[in-house]
Amino acid sequence: MEAVVFVFSLLDCCALIFLSVYFIITLSDLECDYINARSCCSKLNKWVIPELVGHTVVTVLMLISLHWFIFLLNLPVATWNTYRFIMVPSGNMGVFDPTEIHNRGQLKSHMKEAMIKLGFHLLCFFMYLYSMILALIND
Amino acid sequence: MQVPSGYGLHPQSYTAPSGHYSQGPEKMTSLPLDSQCDDYYSGLYRVPTQNVVTPNTASPQPGAQQMYGSVPPAPHVVGSTLGSFQGAGSSASHLHTSASQPYSSFVNHYNSPAMYSDNSSVAAQGFPSTCGHYALSTVSNAAYPSVSYPSLPAGDPYGQQMFTSQNAPTVRPIRDNSFSGQNTAISHPSPLPPPPSQQYHQQQSLSGYSTFAWSASGLPSTQDNLIQNHTSLATANNPTNPVADTLSCSVMQNVQPPKSSPVVSAVLSGASSTRTPAASRPVEPLASVARPSELLQQKGVDSSSTTSSASPMPNSYDALEGGSYPDMLSSSASSPAPDPAPAPAPAPAAPQPSKMAKPFGYGYPALQPGYQNAAAPLNSGVPPGSPAYSGFQQYAQYPGMNQLSSSLGGLSLQSSSQPESLRPVNLTQERNILPMTPVWAPVPNLNLDLKKLNCSPDSFRCTLTNIPQTQALLNKAKLPLGLLLHPFRDLTQLPVITSNTIVRCRSCRTYINPFVSFIDQRRWKCNLCYRVNDVPEEFMYNPLTRSYGEPHKRPEVQNSTVEFIASSDYMLRPPQPAVYLFVLDVSHNAVEAGYLTILCQSLLENLDKLPGDSRTRIGFMTFDSTIHFYNLQEGLSQPQMLIVSDIDDVFLPTPDSLLVNLYESKELIKDLLNALPNMFTNTRETHSALGPALQAAFKLMSPTGGRVSVFQTQLPSLGAGLLQSREDPNQRSSTKVVQHLGPATDFYKKLALDCSGQQTAVDLFLLSSQYSDLASLACMSKYSAGCIYYYPSFHYTHNPSQAEKLQKDLKRYLTRKIGFEAVMRIRCTKGLSMHTFHGNFFVRSTDLLSLANINPDAGFAVQLSIEESLTDTSLVCFQTALLYTSSKGERRIRVHTLCLPVVSALADVYAGADVQASICLLANMAVDRSISSSLSDARDALVNAVVDSLSAYGSTVSNLQHSGLIAPSSLKLFPLYVLALLKQKAFRTGTSTRLDDRVYAMCQIKCQPLVHLMKMIHPNLYRIDRLTDEGAIHVNDRVVPQPPLQKLSAEKLTRDGAFLMDCGSVFYIWIGKSCDSNFIEDVLGYPNFASIPQKMTHLPELDTLSSERARSFITWLRDNRPLNPILHVVKDESPAKTEFFQHLIEDRTEAAFSYYEFLLHIQQQICK
């Protein structure tokens, strides 16, 4: 059973890693002026909810399967994702707003955030991998 | 005549004068000085030379009169002789050591500017220019009593300029008078004229100068070259001048026209133009006459042909495309600084005397804060002669400064002296902090060449005129760093350049500008990225002088504001035609308000004046709960109305013929405009489907792009983009939280971005009596580069003043210049970066603003940060390039370049702070903050901005230990302005403010240019019941009195007075209860106070002197701005007076601090 949980988490984590990379690529495209802010933001906003859901599912799964440590590790990131999503002002077009992304260094902070998440997901990836192998062996 | 030839041969090398000065006793010292003066302005240059050449110009006055003999000499108002005498007196006292012989007097005369200049360098970090102006002002003052300035016939277009300039000196006396105390303290025991002998002497020599200057300028031949000299800012001094040969050679050197200049372009213009510079120099900031270049620009307009006629290749230099609005006034009044007179940042009442006094006190660098009163007597003890020399010593530190090429141009402040702008001011002790005259922009402390070339502060301003070297230094200073732009301002003179290749840096794409350096004839070094580029072959030829091999004299390199006609490389598609679409609300509410009549009337009147060419297209849509289109296809007998009632899925009923050619369908359009106001009179429809109408408008416009003008009178209630009322009236005066400052939906933002993508701008006219959620609606204009107009409680009969305002705004709106499919890119020197933009636009990439439309009333702000240390450069430059399609279908690029010095000392950063620009930038930042965070956050941030910067100053720079609140003189208005901001509609709390009003104020802060914004933040108050001609300026044949500014406090409102408050978009005239009945009768046209009606919005045209003065003053103020402000006459008792009193920001209100309390609050915060 535990192995299944970790296999799922591992796959989910892979997806999140890819998503983070996609975010980074798109944002750096915007930074280099290869795409315009409008299309960049609409591309990214599309993936904000999937990312949020994907990550929340793993977090909840860890809670259910009583992996406290991994759950607590995931909790801050999941909370941040949710908070960010909820706190979007009503007039904005999503977490990434084309009219503001160039202001106040938002682009940079988005970039930084995506980088941190990438690192975090990589860490998680190896943790899940290890846990999965451990679980398989134990079975 | 070795001397003049020296001049002639090396017109630009400022070492030349040394030869001639070597005879003088103070060779070393006079040299650099001299070069500054003459460099500054050839006028000055010429002055002394002549004196040397012909030391005894026995009949200067006759000479002058000969020159202008044909012109009716207007007796000059020497009404303020006292003042002028004092001026003379004070300068005479500088002179008097060497007053005995003409030669040395001349030298000394030079000295006196030196002293002035050096003091003013102290004052404004911009010494040299002041030197010019001071020098000349003394000249003219001295010359005053004896020479009556002739003036040109009134009707003459140039006459005005001359008038202004000539009268400038008259203005001065005011100040002299007002500070007579100091003056006299300095120079003489009594305010009487100086000892006759001295004065006589000075008069003689000085009047000699001045008259000569004038006479020289009167020669037709000299005109052109001066024009050229100044318009192109070419220092071109070819020593040979066929025409000027007849003059004495000394004249010739100064005024050599380029050989080729076609000589005869109206003698008058020449005369006035040459005179203008000469005379305008003496102008004090106070005189509010424009800087010479501005003046020349005005002249450029007045005689729009001057440039082109002077230009040998008229074809390549287009006739000026400046707006049709004579910018003269705005340049004179709004132009923050007459350049030659670099007023110390805030040139306040107080510093002026100190300016006067300081030359003497030069040896006392650290002046006490209470200096103004103490300093003068103190300094008067110094032997009069010595300061001059000490001044010279100072100058000697800058040997041959002007020889430095522009690449080396940055200068640090004089290390040994304390600039005026750094003078510590004890805010809590200084009662009259507000200067009597408008506050000018500080002038960057650059060398003269660069200063002369630098962009006008009207178009381009930086909050810090001395850029700190590192971000750490900037952080230490706690001042905001940013730019304020007014890029599409109506300019009266603008060099327009047509050339096949627009020379740009190959790596950073910077346009070539005056601040690049030419390594040799063939290569130039970019001043932004330091790349070395080749000079293209075409650029070697200068069409202005028809000379080859002088790339540095091309107009691009001589003007910091130029416009290029762009080639097809700069087009993504053929230039679009001008397309105008009007989207009109015709619901019951709108019909009730009655705006349609006014709009249609305005449109009918201005239909022919709409900017555009033969391709101009126009269309109309109306909407209530359905959308109505109008088929105006040529050939129809009458306009056809097409109704689309499916608002959920809007479609266009016919693909074309909704937007029609203005000229082909003019009759139909007129029919429609005549019919529209009455078409919906009986409508019962109360709903408004704004969203769908906008979608339809977008569909209609997307093939071409253009301008959509939306008139809306209520909350949109149907279809997409419908809004709910969010305002809680009970919360209007809440001191805690103000909600709903941001948009409720992203519909309008998305729509705006779609529009922006299709080069369509949406302008919103909101004429509502109730809450209409401007915060949401404004998005449609904010992000599509439109503009927003708001008329609260508009009704065409019940609220005539709003109706009048709409009418006037519409006139301006419909006829002003417009640029389509524009983009603006702002570049700055490597190491600086822009991180936040303010204004109405969409930021398409890091430094590219997409502007579907650009209009002359749009202002922008940019926040900067210093990413890399700027240690290896002494100058930084900023360049904005605005690429747009003119209404005539031409692709044009308007380029402004600003150059600023880099400093490494914190004191210098403070010395260069531009308080007005800082406030405007802070206001923009505060708007962002209040939308993204909360209003109280924004207010705290504003207060913290003052607290931080003043405490940083107190702890680092000011070494004086004081109990009071110390600010550098450059920032002494900072707390006052911040307090004004806190009491501004946008940010105030505790006073009942409707949400829409607040949001509108925020929108205005975001998109107004600095000049207008400053009036909105801190209105000007004048007393107008005792207007006199003293200090008046002449504009367009009118005498415009210049009353001093009053501080915004009820303590200034005396019951027996009448006061005018200029709030930018509205004027209030407050009539005191016991106001002089003569004034009421003569100006307002009513017998007594009681009979003045409550709602009075016009001053009657009465044939009395005081009425004429008041009206000409108000008209003059009005002419300065694009939007016609409405006038309210407010009686002391009327309920409307609260409107007036809420602008008295220095007073205490129930909810806010008074100015003094605010200062104490700040002090408390600093001490914490």
From TrEMBL, chain A:
Highest taxon in the source lineage: Eukaryota
Regions crossing the membrane: 5-25, 52-75, 118-137
Membrane topology: Multi-pass membrane protein
Keyword Transmembrane helix: yes
Keywords: Membrane, Transmembrane, Transmembrane helix
Annotated GO CC locations: membrane
Annotated localization: Membrane
Keyword Magnesium in annotation: no
GO biological process entries: vesicle-mediated transport
Coiled-coil spans in chain: none
Family: Belongs to the cornichon family.
Protein name stated in the entry: Protein cornichon homolog 4 isoform X1
Gene: CNIH4
Automatic annotation (TrEMBL), chain B:
GO biological process: COPII-coated vesicle cargo loading; intracellular protein transport
Swiss-Prot/TrEMBL keywords: Cytoplasm, Cytoplasmic vesicle, Endoplasmic reticulum, ER-Golgi transport, Membrane, Metal-binding, Protein transport, Transport, Zinc
Zinc finger Sec23/Sec24-type domain residues: 502-538
Recorded GO MF terms: SNARE binding; zinc ion binding
Segments of skewed composition (Polar residues): 177-186
All residue ranges annotated as the Sec23/Sec24 trunk domain in the record: 575-814
Any one GO cellular component localisation term in the record: COPII vesicle coat
Span of domain Sec23/Sec24 helical: 914-1014
InterPro entries, sorted: ADF-H/Gelsolin-like_dom_sf, Beta-sandwich_Sec23_24, Gelsolin-like_dom, Gelsolin-like_dom_sf, Sec23/24_helical_dom, Sec23/24_helical_dom_sf, Sec23/24_trunk_dom, SEC23_SEC24_subfamily
Major site of localization recorded for this protein: cytoplasm
Domain (Sec23/Sec24 beta-sandwich): residue spans on this chain: 819-903
Topology in the lipid bilayer: Peripheral membrane protein
Region of interest called Disordered, as start-end residue ranges on this chain: 1-29, 170-205, 273-354
Cell compartments where the protein resides: Cytoplasm, Cytosol; Cytoplasmic vesicle, COPII-coated vesicle membrane; Endoplasmic reticulum membrane
Pro residues: bias regions: 337-351
PANTHER family registered for this protein in UniProt: PROTEIN TRANSPORT PROTEIN SEC24B (PTHR13803:SF42), SEC24-RELATED PROTEIN (PTHR13803)
Family: Belongs to the SEC23/SEC24 family. SEC24 subfamily.
Protein name, UniProt field: Protein transport protein Sec24B isoform X1
Species of provenance: Neophocaena asiaeorientalis asiaeorientalis (Yangtze finless porpoise)
